[in-house]
Amino acid sequence: MKRFFTYLFSLLFPRTCPICGNAIEENETICRHCLLTLPRTEQAILHDNMTEELFRDIPNFVRAAAFLFFQKGASTQRLIHAIKYNQRPDVAYAIAKEAAADFINTDFFDEIDVILPIPLHKRRLRQRGYNQSFYIAKALSDVTGIPIDTTHITRIVNNPKQALMRGKQREENVKGIFQANHPEELYRKHILLVDDLVTTGNTVRSCIKTMKAFRGCHISVFALGKAVK
Predict the structure, then answer these.
(1) pLDDT per residue over 23-43, tens digit each?
(2) What is the DSSP letter of 160?
(3) Would you call 85 helix, strand, or coil by DSSP?
(4) Which of 12, 46, 47, 174 is the most core-located residue (most Cβ within 10 A)?
(5) Between β-strands 178-180 and 153-155, what pairing exists: parallel, antiparallel or unpaired?
(6) Residue 1: pLDDT band with limits 50, 70, 90
C-alpha cells in the first residue's frame, strides 16, 4: 500500500529539475544534462580571476573563486532563484557538493581551518526558513572535512536586498550589518567565507571588515555564482 501511494504521489507531483523543469529520477536533484552544461568558471585553478579582483586589496586576503558564471535569464539565474526563493536548500547542497568535488582536486582548500557561511538576519531566516549559504558550506564541509562555524559572525541589521540596488547604494546598504563574536577564538585562523552569489562583492567585503576583530586571520572566499553582464 505504501508503495502504491508513493507511486501515486510521484504521478501527481513529479520531481522536476529546478533549471529546465523536466522530470528527474528520485535520486537526482538536478538533471544530468543541466548539471553538465552549467557555465563553470574554472576559477579554482585561476589565481587571477574576476572574483579575486573584487577582494585583492584586502589585507590578509588569500583566494577567491566562484563555481559558476551567473547571468540574468540563463540557467544559473533559475538555479540561484530556486535556492533562495523556492524553498530548495537541497539544490544549494547538491550543486555545492558538485563544486567541492571539482575544487578538492586543486589547492583551493589547502590550509583552510574553518568554513564560515555569510549569515542571514534572524528575521529573514525566519521568513525563509533556512540560510542557503549554510547548505552550501555544509556541502563543502562534508566533502573536505573542514569544520563549519556559524557563531562568530552575526548579522545584526536586516538590510534591504542588494538586488534592488545599484552602484554606491549597494556599498552603503551593507555597512555595519555584521558583528564579530568571541574574536579571540579565531585568532590567526584561515577562514573560508561562503556566499551564494557575488556581484559587486560588497556584502562579503562588509563581513571581512567585521572580521578584522579576528586578529591575524586570513580570508578566502567561495561563491556558487559570480555575476557577469
Answers:
(1) 998 889 999 999 999 999 999
(2) P
(3) helix
(4) 174
(5) antiparallel
(6) low
